[in-house]
Sequence to fold (179 residues):
Amino acid sequence: MNKVSNALRCLASAIFVSAMCVGSAAAQPVGAGCVLDQAAFAGRQVLRCAGGLTITAESGAQYSLLDRDGNGKADAARLSSRALLIDAPKGSLGKTGFQVLTPQAIAAVRGTKWAVDADGSKTSVFVAQGRVSVRRPDSGRGVTLGAGDGVDVEAGTGALTVKRWAPARVQALMARFGQ
Fold:
């Protein structure tokens, strides 16, 4: 079985384990260099990965971790619904960075804190710290978001519009992660 398939199998097991073992002191391995932090609550999952990368998955998020270069470390996540909060301290990801892939967008970073929300027909990306590049999967053109910026990506070919998100929208998104 290849590493990605193994990571997906382990992730599915970890989801079941997290639902059954909340409060357990032991971390559960999920593959791709990540372990499930059993201190998660309210249905959220917190994955602690090699190099200091932390991924918080909103309750009910459908995602999988990817190790595309086969080095045993997560370098991407495929997100199909709900939201992920990525905290990648500067220098934690090496030269490859980290990407979140959704049906509408690819968001990539080298060191920052940001959230990606895949909601049916659109993907929203918000940056709390640092910078994140966002583009459609079929386009080389994209935008770069700074702290406090967000973008909503829908199907199509139109230009992406970076906006400063209102505090209420930021608070609502971050509350989904207990932040």
Notes: The chain is about 15% helix and 40% strand. The two ends are 37 Å apart (CA to CA). Residues 1-26 have pLDDT under 50 and may be disordered.
